[in-house]
Amino acid sequence: MIGNISKLADRITGSINRRIFRPSIIVEEVAGLTRLGSVYGGWTIKDAQDLVGCVAISCGLGEDASFDVEFAARYGADMVLVDPTPRSVTHYDQLVAHVGQSASTAYVKGGCQPVEAYDMSAIRPEQLRLEPKALWIDEEPVRFYKPANPAHVSHSVCFGAEEENADYILVPTVTLAGLLANLPQDRFALLKMDIEGAETEILSSIAQWPVLPRQLLVEFDVLRSANAQSKAQVERIDALLRSQGYACCHFDGERNYLYLR
Question: Are 172 and 141 within 8 A, CB to CB?
Answer without folding.
Answer: yes
